[in-house]
């Protein structure tokens, strides 16, 4: 008012603002008690200032009339009631500047951790604050709009008139002509930012009230923002900000957050243009309000039992409308600032979604995901299965998922984003101990699957043995239509050294799977699958290296995590099992790591019909829309295998033979009853042709597919109870030994491929 400046107008704002924010920082650092005391002092000053203004409106002085203040007049109220925007200002440009005055709504929620009873205090305090603020803002606007005209010169000599000519403003009725203000004036509602001081009874108290209001808002923001930021950092959502999670003192004060907020505030103070800063602040506040409104709506939409709003008049659709209005107003105020805000918020959201921090807030997104999954599962249950929608849904007998990573990654390669994958783990042993392990393992291994980006479920069960556990899983795993239809097991590499009762259990698991209409896949790597004895030894120091076999096993366990390169997937389709043996290789080639691999198809045939069989198979594959690089018809598939290979097979099965012809009938019968897995002489002779076929197939596999990335082959099956477990395991051993990774596949004879 008096033109007293330290440097100039803009730099004075910077100097005073910087000093003020330093003082506020000191109050914040001192703790919540000092902040609360400071807020009470500021509130008292603010109430006195408002009272001073209200009293002043009833005391019109002649000295104030040239400045446009005439007391309560209906004519002034009516003139000021309508809009009169100037200098390219609009409703929304003024709204953007005024909006920060109403941004204290979240002040209580922001310091909820320091409130004695936040559940009661926040809604009462927030609603009362909104009500009182609305009444005060509205009352002051109406009061000043009823007392002061829009334009006044402030010049006593030039404004008093004796004759009124062409004067139509409200001031004219009170013998004042401010028509000269068309070229600009210093006073009036449109020109004088200190109009409340002019109206008041004691002007300095209004300045104190303005300071009180602004300092109160600044102090609330300076205290609450760091506390929210500290909570965010404690969740480690953005690891780069972890340092700001540390608290100090008995109240766990976020001193580092206070300092960061102070620096941000200081940066905006140095801009020194309130009208430039206000729209930016308004946009971010509107964005936060939009998100809060939408979060509340989303929580209601998710129908989570934990979402129980206590506010009697709450309505989810009002929340949605509020969110939409906030977004619209953001663009109306300042479109480029709104876009910038959206980009920042979206970037933060994408980062959190991608990183998937290990935090659990019981979010509405989680609740809605559950609701959608439940609704879609129920809807899916009412739809009949169709061959066009068949997808391999695999129950993998992995044990602990991290014990057989190669098995897991290979199956994941053809089920990812296509079908269900459940990792079955059978716990045996004392029931009480096993049940404790179930609960801890469920959380532990499901987290492991998520961390390793496996789209799979972990399903542990307690049972007497593997077979019982497998039966439980095949009967109970899954939900509605999302149930496994294919059992996947690793090849039992050590079957000759182990207890043959375990082999009996292993083979019976296949028969159980066929009984419940499952397909069966047996996966074998020549190095083996189980690395549980090597857990934590992958990074051993050079002073204690792994032995060669273990090193090869460890290397093989990661081979399906790498890009497979330009090689072949060899499909040996020897039986029509419904098409599963063809579907799995096709699904593999649709994945990024396998897309460069070509499918080669091998079939059995007669030497005099090789061309005919090749053309017929090519036609069939074309109708199935399965790309292939080559088809090979093997006319010598039924040729007798080499003598040395037959001898090796006989040597392998020798320890498991019964040799009943060399024993008394009673002794042989008792031995067969006690050890049903033993191979009888009669059985061996009866299935000699099938035995030779497995040995011969292994010879052909070594001849044609030794360089393939992976082999997919029809699994030989034997009638339940007709073939002993030892002989069947010997067939699988003879068929699949010394080869690249091989999948032995047998569908349940239901079609999984269609021409249409």
TrEMBL record:
<feature type="transmembrane region" description="Helical">
    <location>
        <begin position="41"/>
        <end position="61"/>
    </location>
</feature>
<keyword id="KW-0915">Sodium</keyword>
<keyword id="KW-1133">Transmembrane helix</keyword>
<comment type="similarity">
    <text>Belongs to the SLC12A transporter family.</text>
</comment>
<keyword id="KW-0472">Membrane</keyword>
<protein>
    <recommendedName>
        <fullName>Solute carrier family 12 member 3</fullName>
    </recommendedName>
</protein>
<feature type="transmembrane region" description="Helical">
    <location>
        <begin position="314"/>
        <end position="333"/>
    </location>
</feature>
<dbReference type="GO" id="GO:1990573">
    <property type="term" value="P:potassium ion import across plasma membrane"/>
</dbReference>
<dbReference type="GO" id="GO:0055064">
    <property type="term" value="P:chloride ion homeostasis"/>
</dbReference>
<keyword id="KW-0769">Symport</keyword>
<keyword id="KW-0325">Glycoprotein</keyword>
<keyword id="KW-0406">Ion transport</keyword>
<keyword id="KW-0597">Phosphoprotein</keyword>
<dbReference type="GO" id="GO:0008511">
    <property type="term" value="F:sodium:potassium:chloride symporter activity"/>
</dbReference>
<feature type="domain" description="Amino acid permease/ SLC12A">
    <location>
        <begin position="7"/>
        <end position="395"/>
    </location>
</feature>
<keyword id="KW-0832">Ubl conjugation</keyword>
<feature type="transmembrane region" description="Helical">
    <location>
        <begin position="258"/>
        <end position="278"/>
    </location>
</feature>
<dbReference type="InterPro" id="IPR004842">
    <property type="entry name" value="SLC12A_fam"/>
</dbReference>
<feature type="transmembrane region" description="Helical">
    <location>
        <begin position="202"/>
        <end position="225"/>
    </location>
</feature>
<keyword id="KW-0813">Transport</keyword>
<keyword id="KW-0067">ATP-binding</keyword>
<keyword id="KW-0739">Sodium transport</keyword>
<dbReference type="GO" id="GO:0005524">
    <property type="term" value="F:ATP binding"/>
</dbReference>
<feature type="transmembrane region" description="Helical">
    <location>
        <begin position="91"/>
        <end position="113"/>
    </location>
</feature>
<feature type="domain" description="SLC12A transporter C-terminal">
    <location>
        <begin position="547"/>
        <end position="756"/>
    </location>
</feature>
<feature type="transmembrane region" description="Helical">
    <location>
        <begin position="284"/>
        <end position="302"/>
    </location>
</feature>
<keyword id="KW-0547">Nucleotide-binding</keyword>
<comment type="function">
    <text>Electroneutral sodium and chloride ion cotransporter, which acts as a key mediator of sodium and chloride reabsorption in kidney distal convoluted tubules. Also acts as a receptor for the pro-inflammatory cytokine IL18, thereby contributing to IL18-induced cytokine production, including IFNG, IL6, IL18 and CCL2. May act either independently of IL18R1, or in a complex with IL18R1.</text>
</comment>
<feature type="transmembrane region" description="Helical">
    <location>
        <begin position="125"/>
        <end position="145"/>
    </location>
</feature>
<dbReference type="InterPro" id="IPR004841">
    <property type="entry name" value="AA-permease/SLC12A_dom"/>
</dbReference>
<dbReference type="InterPro" id="IPR018491">
    <property type="entry name" value="SLC12_C"/>
</dbReference>
<keyword id="KW-0630">Potassium</keyword>
<dbReference type="GO" id="GO:0055078">
    <property type="term" value="P:sodium ion homeostasis"/>
</dbReference>
<dbReference type="Pfam" id="PF00324">
    <property type="entry name" value="AA_permease"/>
</dbReference>
<feature type="domain" description="SLC12A transporter C-terminal">
    <location>
        <begin position="404"/>
        <end position="539"/>
    </location>
</feature>
<keyword id="KW-1015">Disulfide bond</keyword>
<dbReference type="GO" id="GO:0006884">
    <property type="term" value="P:cell volume homeostasis"/>
</dbReference>
<keyword id="KW-0868">Chloride</keyword>
<dbReference type="GO" id="GO:0008519">
    <property type="term" value="F:ammonium channel activity"/>
</dbReference>
<feature type="transmembrane region" description="Helical">
    <location>
        <begin position="15"/>
        <end position="34"/>
    </location>
</feature>
<dbReference type="InterPro" id="IPR002443">
    <property type="entry name" value="SLC12A1/SLC12A2"/>
</dbReference>
<keyword id="KW-0812">Transmembrane</keyword>
